[in-house]
Backbone:
């Protein structure tokens, strides 16, 4: 089964994306903070992560991204954020992000991008 | 007997309420939230959402969403190539007879029963994409809002609790609502932009006004000091230019002249600035105590035109310029530069003429004595009716007598050079 982890501090966004991808036969887990996300990665072993940059509690999306990529370089991480500064994007790419999508986003594009990441992974296997 | 019935919408009441709110509400965002909240409360759909065109970015965004399957605000956008946007922007789909709305159940039926197979592939593809977009967001009914044929928003509605399709009357209700909303939003936007523009214009005008006022005040100050300088240089005039101003205003009061508002300032400025053009007269002419040659007298006369030119930038003081222009006109028409006569000469200029002569005589070295005031009176009387306006001469004499009584001999110290 395709496994997706959604990390966002906004519960509404988590719930919406969870429902959306579950209807497309994904197994979806959500996390609301950096530490929660790291724990979920260890236990859930997702194929793809949708990761918000701005999260309260000291550990932001970029720090989470770096830790995940250090330990699990194969997990595809798509940054999903309202922040769109050149520095943030470059930083995310340097840490190994697989894509960078800004909110508000096109749902069609998001679905396609997640699907593509899954296909790349299964092709590698 | 009191069987509970599903709540029905009284469309007319709702519409009237909404219309009333639209008039009251100046902020369209609030109106839109009101609408979504209303529909959500009355119908309890799986969701009630509004997307609105962001003109500056060429995209549609969710401004409000209510219900269990609501769409988080700020998460999703519709680009201009989004199927729903394309659908309502492009030629409307005649085949399904859903010109002003899209209903997922109808669309699904059309796609399933093969009626759409005869369409050109692109057309069929669009139908499929529209259907998918509606599936993605759990949209059962989509209603477009237009303003002047431009799609500016969409009302997106989820399923009813009982999953029954929307009725015709419900759909037409939503259409009316969406159209009214579009209108209200655009009108409010238009008014707001108009108000913004007005405020901005007013601010600019005020700034210009303030700047000009400040500029003019500064300019007036410069003129005033210039006038004093000229006054001091002229061997025929001594004392302070402010004394001339004081005498002139007093004479005008004695004449019963209306000095309210700007009128007082105008006379005041005329009294002070009438000879400012002498700044352009060569010292050897200006400082010659007596016996000017004919040529030198002509040069002297140019101080009137020079004064007018210097004061021209004072656009708020057009009347002052007129006083300067006419202060050497004589009552009988024998003066310069125009040879005006009697009432054709502004009263302020007639006052300047008399007061200036009086002040010159009482402060002049040649006449300096206790009798100087009496001598000045004699001189004024002699020229009354020819050079001077007799009424002004009389008024000045009356005024000086009154002041003498009021102030005693102190009054004459005013005119002695320090
Ligand atoms: Fe003069």
Residues:
């Amino acid at each position: 089964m395709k496994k997706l982890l959604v990390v966002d501090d906004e519960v509404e966004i988590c719930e919406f994306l969870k429902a959306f991808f579950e209807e497309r036969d994904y197994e979806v887990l959500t996390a609301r903070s950096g530490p929660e996300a790291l724990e979920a990665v260890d236990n859930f072993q997702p194929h793809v992560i949708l990761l918000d940059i701005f999260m309260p509690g000291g550990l932001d999306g970029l720090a989470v991204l770096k830790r995940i990529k250090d330990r699990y370089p194969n997990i595809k991480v798509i940054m999903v954020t309202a922040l769109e500064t050149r520095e943030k994007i470059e930083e995310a790419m340097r840490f190994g992000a697989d894509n960078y999508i800004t909110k508000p986003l096109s749902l069609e594009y998001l679905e396609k991008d997640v699907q593509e990441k899954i296909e790349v992974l299964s092709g590698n296997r | 007997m009191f069987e509970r019935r599903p709540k029905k919408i009284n469309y007319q009441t709702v519409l009237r309420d909404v219309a009333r709110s639209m008039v009251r509400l100046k902020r369209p965002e609030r109106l839109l939230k009101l609408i979504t909240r209303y529909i959500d409360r009355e119908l309890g759909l799986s969701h009630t959402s509004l997307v609105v065109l962001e003109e500056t970015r060429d995209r549609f965004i969710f401004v409000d969403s209510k219900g269990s399957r609501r769409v988080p605000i700020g998460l999703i956008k519709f680009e201009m190539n989004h199927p729903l946007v394309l659908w309502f922007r492009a030629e409307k789909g005649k085949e399904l007879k859903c010109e002003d709305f899209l209903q997922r159940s109808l669309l699904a039926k059309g796609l399933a029963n093969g009626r759409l197979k005869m369409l050109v592939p692109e057309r069929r593809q669009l139908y499929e994409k529209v259907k998918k977009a509606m599936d993605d967001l759990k949209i059962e009914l989509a209603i477009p809002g237009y303003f002047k044929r431009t799609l500016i928003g969409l009302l997106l509605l989820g399923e009813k609790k009982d999953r029954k399709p929307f009725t015709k009357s419900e759909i037409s209700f939503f259409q009316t609502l969406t159209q009214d909303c579009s209108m209200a939003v655009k009108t409010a936007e238009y008014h707001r932009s108009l108000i913004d523009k007005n405020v901005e214009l007013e601010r600019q005008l005020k700034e210009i006004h303030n700047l000009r006022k400040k500029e003019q005040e500064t300019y007036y100050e410069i003129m005033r000091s210039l006038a004093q300088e000229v006054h001091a240089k002229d061997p025929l005039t001594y004392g302070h230019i402010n004394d001339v101003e004081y005498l002139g205003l007093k004479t005008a009061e004695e004449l019963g002249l209306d000095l309210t508002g700007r009128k007082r300032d105008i006379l005041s400025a005329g009294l002070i600035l009438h000879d400012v053009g002498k700044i352009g007269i060569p010292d050897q002419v200006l400082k010659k105590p007596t016996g000017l040659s004919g040529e030198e007298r002509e040069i002297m006369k140019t101080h009137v035109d020079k004064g007018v030119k210097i004061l021209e930038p004072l656009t708020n003081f057009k009347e002052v310029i007129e006083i300067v222009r006419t202060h050497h006109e004589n009552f009988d028409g024998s003066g310069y530069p125009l040879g005006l006569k009697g009432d054709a000469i502004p009263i302020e200029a007639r006052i300047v003429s008399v007061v200036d002569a009086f002040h010159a005589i009482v402060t002049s070295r040649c006449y300096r004595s206790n009798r100087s005031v009496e001598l000045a009176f004699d001189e004024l009387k002699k020229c009354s009716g020819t050079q001077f306006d007799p009424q002004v001469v009389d008024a000045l004499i009356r005024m000086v007598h009154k002041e003498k009584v009021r102030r005693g001999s102190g009054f004459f110290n005013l005119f002695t050079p320090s």
Observations:
- The CA atoms of residues 14 and 30 of chain A lie 6 Å apart.
